[in-house]
Amino acid sequence: MCAHVSETPFHNWVWLFWPMAAMIIGGIGSKKGAIVGIAILAIMDFIIITLMRQFGQALLFFPISYLEDIIVPLMILIPLMFLPGGLIEERRKPIKGIVYGEI
After folding, report:
1. Separation of alpha carbons 85 and 26, rounded Å
2. Which end of the chain is more exposed for a tag (fewer CB within 10 A), N or C?
3. Where are the domains of the chain?
4. Angle CA 42–74–90, to nearest 5
């Protein structure tokens, strides 16, 4: 009987950070923003894969595949600092009877 431990089930990168990054980049509460965020992340992933195929792993002083681990957190932090509403902000619909200046 052979047993081993793999880190794959504990790696929440694809299931947690990619969707969160897409929503933050595009705009929380906006369907168009989510699509824009997904498109930006897909283009970024395509560029990284193309660089890996073209130059191999030794283009930089670290493997190119680590660019994903560096760029995605930056794509979460930078929009949060400079564009808190995302690229396409949520359009709020006013409700009659609520004074929004007091909230």
Report:
1. 8
2. N
3. 14-84
4. 70
